[in-house]
Amino acid sequence: MSRVRTRVACIAIAFALTGVPPSWATDAQHGAAVFESCKACHNDQDDALGPNLIGVFGRKAGTLPGFHYSNAMKNAGFVWTAANLKDYLTDPQAKVKGNRMPFSGLANPGDLDDLIAYLQTLK
After folding, report:
1. Which of 2, 69, 89, 115 is deepest in the core (most CB within 10 A)?
2. CA distances from 87 to 12, 19, 33, 96 (A)
3. How high is the pLDDT of residue 46?
4. pLDDT digits (tens, 9 = 90+) for 5-49
5. Mean of the per-residue pLDDT values for the chain?
6. Which structural domain range is residue 111 located in?
7. Which CATH number do you get for residue 107?
8. Looking at the domain assignment, is residue 59 inside a domain?
9. Which of left, alpha, beta for 46 (phi over 0: left; psi -120 to 50: alpha)?
10. What pLDDT, on a 0 to 100 scale, did the predictor assign at position 23?
């Protein structure tokens, strides 16, 4: 195997093991378009149905100050990483049984990866 192929393979394996999608495989701009349907609940209004997602990466689930989370989400016990977001956005009830998010999941893997790339930009 050539040196270039070996390096590419090593990088791909590293991303696979960390659960972080490689930046060349995602499109945050498309993810912003996917997020448009999420804005009905996830916005910066005081009476929003869902928590504001600015700074969601690295934040412990169920801990945004000022938002009233379900007990299930408060007790989820994990930090929002790319892997945890992928699991949650694929099937919210499977990841956090009893959460209140009225969303059945995002089925398209490309849309999901792009949405996660977009969420990483919200700081």
Report:
1. 115
2. 20, 11, 20, 10
3. 83
4. 555 454 555 455 555 545 445 799 999 999 999 999 999 888 899
5. 87
6. 23-121
7. 1.10.760.10
8. yes
9. alpha
10. 47
Q: How many residues does the chain have?
A: 123
Q: For 85-97, b where at least 16 C-beta lie within 10 A, e where not — what string?
A: bbbbbeebeebbe
Whether 4 is in a domain gets the answer no
The answer to whether the beta carbons of residues 103 and 17 sit under 8 Å apart is no
Is position 102 within any domain?
A: yes
